[in-house]
Amino acid sequence: MVNATAQRLQNFVGGAYVEGVASFEKHSPVDGSLVALVEEAGAEQVGAAVAAARRAVDGAWGRSTVAERAALLRRIADRIEARFEEFVAAEVADTGKPLRQARELDVARAVVNFRSFADTVSATGLDSFLTELADGRRALNYAVPRPLGVVAIVVPWNLPLLLLTWKVAPALACGNAVVVKPSEETPSTATLLAEVIAEAGAPDGVYNVVHGFGPGSAGELLTTHPDIDGVTFTGESATGAAIMRGVAPFVRPVSFELGGKNAAVVFADADLDKAVAGLGRSIFTNTGQVCLCTERVYIERPVYDEVVAGLVEHARGLRLGRPEDEATTTGPLISVEHRAKVERYLATAVDEGAEVLVGGGVPDLGADLAGGAWIEPTLWAGLHQQARAVREEVFGPVAALMPFDTEEEAVGLANDTRYGLAAAVWTRDLERGHRVAQQMRVGMSWVNTWYLRDLRSPFGGVGLSGIGREGGTHSLHFYTEPTNVCVQL
Ligand code: NAD
């Protein structure tokens, strides 16, 4: 099947669209139709992109002021808003996510990402110390932030534009030039963003896009390029490890936002209606394909049955369907390959003794959608803590529901993972809420909510979930290198 709007997506290098060494097909996860033919960058295109970025950093862009860069970011935000529906259509074509979600979350957040980092960079001062030594010498120490230089940005497919602009905005705010490698599953919005950034007046070479895959393709070519100055990556933990090995010989800084196996803890005193609604969001948003999604729910025994019943009802109420259908709550997985992985976990969970409370397979949505990557929202009971389905990231609309008896036990179970990205605690006892949230060995811990973000706050994970934090001034620290100047007075 060929979509009438299928297009050819090129690489964007030094301000111009360029072809690659081969092309690959991007198919819709909704029905398998062809969305785009994508030009795959080879060593020559990746090298040219890095060189163009270097020229930008060494040229006028490298001498730009904070005010000029903040103004550029605001113009980019305005241009995304002006072409809002184009971005929505591109994101939906690649991912199959509901139109409403693309509007309210993905593209809306892209706009906010640029405005927020324009504000942050404008308001951030320098670290300075008036130094007074015992022998009477005095000095002024101040640290001047310099751009990192050429930043490689490698991003995944789940929230493509949101996660890309989360990195592009602060990188440009700090005066870097970037080479972006979007996921092979979601090449469209990164390409459209190139047009918008150029329209907003960014000099050639400031924003470059190279398309392709990971190993042996544009991803690896970019992250192992000797002339990049740092890598910021969002994706799987195993990919982060591979990228780390690739940059090790060059001793480059990395910022990693990786996988998760996130827990939620529901205490018996929680507002159960709110908890069930919140868990419904945290398990099933984006078909479970958000790094922050909950895949383990620990429920205090007295309310276990009630919470389980509420969640099963919630899952049954989800509507799978075409993105443009107003009634649709839940899209497909990103690809039939990813669905095969999720299906393997569905089978593993059953082998490990799971009782399937709802879902558990591939739905029949009719011939029209038979070529898509659809999967049923699934809840498991009866799994033990050592089960693979409880320990490994599935990245689909699934969760294991498990009872607990004491606060200490709940904290221990939630922290019994090699990941450490996000947690959510549901309780009316705020003292306990603070206490338990602080004991979670994660980067982000929510109380009575989930995925409520202040872009100035630190975002990232511990353990297998990542290295470093981005967000607000945390991002500015990654995308700059301070030079400390000491002047004797
Ligand atoms: P992935 O790691 O397979 O791919 C991510 C990107 O890395 C893609 O662009 C891919 O082409 C590229 N890549 C793959 N191998 C590479 C290599 N060897 N060298 C260089 N680049 C390479 O991840 P995915 O399947 O696209 O995304 C899902 C994963 O992302 C999940 O694990 C999810 O938890 C994680 N994620 C984390 C966050 C976070 O903020 N912590 C946010 C979203 C997604």
From TrEMBL:
InterPro entries: Ald_DH/histidinol_DH, Ald_DH_C, Ald_DH_CS_CYS, Ald_DH_CS_GLU, Ald_DH_N, Aldehyde_DH_dom, OHmuconic_semiald_DH. PROSITE patterns: ALDEHYDE_DEHYDR_CYS, ALDEHYDE_DEHYDR_GLU. Residues 23-484 form the Aldehyde dehydrogenase domain. CDD domains: ALDH_F8_HMSADH (cd07093). One of its GO terms (molecular function) is aminomuconate-semialdehyde dehydrogenase activity. Pfam families: Aldedh. Its EC number is 1.2.1.32, 1.2.1.85. The keyword Nucleotide-binding does not apply. The active site is at E257. Keywords: NAD, Oxidoreductase. NCBIfam families: OH_muco_semi_DH (TIGR03216). Belongs to the aldehyde dehydrogenase family. This is Aminomuconate-semialdehyde/2-hydroxymuconate-6-semialdehyde dehydrogenase.
